[in-house]
Write a structure and sequence with these properties.
By secondary structure, this protein is mostly helical. The protein is built from 7 helices and 3 strands; from the N terminus they run H-E-E-E-H-H-H-H-H-H. A hairpin with a 5-residue loop joins strand 2 and strand 3. Helix 1 runs antiparallel to helix 3 and helix 3 (69-99) packs antiparallel against helix 4 (103-111). It is elongated. The N and C termini lie far apart (99 Å). 13% of the residues are buried.
Amino acid sequence: MNPANPTQWVEEYEAKLADLKKKSEDLTENFAAASATVTSKDGSVTVTVGPNGGLQNLQLGHRAVELGAARLTAAILETARQAQKQAALQVLELFKPLGEGTEAYQMVSDSIPDDEDAEETGDTYDEIDDEPEPAPAAPPASRPAAAPQPPPVRGRSRADDDDDDDNQPW
């Protein structure tokens, strides 16, 4: 750029602005369409998340009912975590033309966990023991009919009122 030629400087600046505008429009258009769908290893769970990592869809396969509550929960969480990571990587790739080399890009990049971080936490889906489900509670035993109760006493006698006067000074 030649600082002595203001016309050339303005033209280059306008070209940069047009390029930035095009990249921004592409980001906006593609960001809305970014999502990730992941299925668990055994096919029991399929999770779809949007570009912000929010859950968009959850499908449970036939095998899901066989897993039990703890294993199913672990499968859903692990599959969702993988889908969120994929969506974040897509968003990061979309943001690259606009922000690569900036502090904002680095911050977003640093917030995505490495695969090594995920391995440190372990795959809880595989580690959960097959604990038997608790047996359903037995229905309450039928009780014999209760003996009739005497009718409640209505009102108080005058003697009860005199006793109360000792405890209440007013």
